[in-house]
Amino acid sequence: MDRTDPHKESHFTEFLKPSQVVFDLSADDKVQALEELLDVLVKENLIKNKKPVLTRIIDRERLETTAIGDGVALPHARVNTGSNIVVAVGYSKGGVEFDAVDGKKVHIIILIVWNPALPGLFNHLFAGLAQFLRRPDFRERLYSAGSKTELYGVLSEIHLSLPRSDDQIVSRGSLLWRLQEIQRDKKKATGAVMKKLTEEADFIRGELDESLLDRFDRLMERYGFAVSEVEDGACMGCFINLATGMSSALEGRNDIFVCENCGKFIIDSKKKK
User: Residues 167-199: pLDDT tens digits?
Assistant: First the structure.
């Protein structure tokens, strides 16, 4: 499945065939739905063994739900499948319990597995998907599809454009915030607590790109912290007000930006947990 460079502009269907779409999921809970989609990928010879992939995805869900609200979930894992990227999509009319941030059941599940050797790949794919999935009219067309063919036709409209550079915006803000907390907690931890913190830190690092982690580590080494909250429009790392546009873009989101003044990562204080 060595397809075109996934970082270039492309269409979602370059990574998704009709056979990778489950139109009517039989599952009514998260784990069953994930297994059902992974079974499709095994059948299509896109993954060889679903167990390690399922374990990785479930571990990721325990860290933070990937059900982003409005009936959509984007479960994912960085696993070396031998391919650039592997995708399966499931639709459930009745909905699946997925611990969504808004408490609602999930109707569209887009499962993504990608090669950890390709930095920024998930950010690229997520940026393209989010552009369409945040639109109520597009989601309604997905939910009202009457067949697999119709659902696939709507999905084929998704265009994956290049995301903005890491100097402007980096997703997965809450993960970086948690990694910073772990770094601090490890200074006074011992025994089983230290082991647990180390395991969680290793898992989070596996979710993030090397370039992002390199910047994080350098900031931690130099300043003792790398991620700052934003309160009342000001970065708490340098106590300087952000540009109005950046402050507005940051508010209420779970993304992480870079402060133009001090260079530290910044995250909305309401979204740090």
Answer: 344 457 788 999 999 999 999 999 999 999 998
Query: Rounded distance, CA 166 to CA 173, Å?
Result: 12
Q: Is the pLDDT of residue 242 over 60?
A: yes
Confidence of residue 82 (pLDDT cuts 50, 70, 90): low
CATH number for 10-160 (one of 3.40.50.300, 3.40.930.10, 3.40.50.10190, 3.30.70.3270): it is: 3.40.930.10
Contact between residue 98 and residue 127 where contact means Cβ atoms under 8 Å apart: no
What CA–CA distance (Å, rounded) separates 166 from 69? Answer: 25
Answer yes or no: same fold for 10-160 and 169-271. no
**2 pLDDT more than 50:** no
pLDDT of residue 45: 92
Residue 199 makes CB contacts below 8 A (sequence gap 6+) with none
Q: Exposed/middle/buried for 110, CB within 10 Å: 0-12, 13-18, 19+?
A: buried
pTM: predicted TM-score of the whole model, two decimal places: 0.67
Q: 169-271 has which CATH code?
A: 1.10.287.1490
Does residue 162 have a pLDDT over 60? no
The CA–CA distances, whole Å, from 75 to 111, 114, 126, 183 equal 5, 12, 11, 26
- Asked if residue 147 has pLDDT above 60, the reply is yes
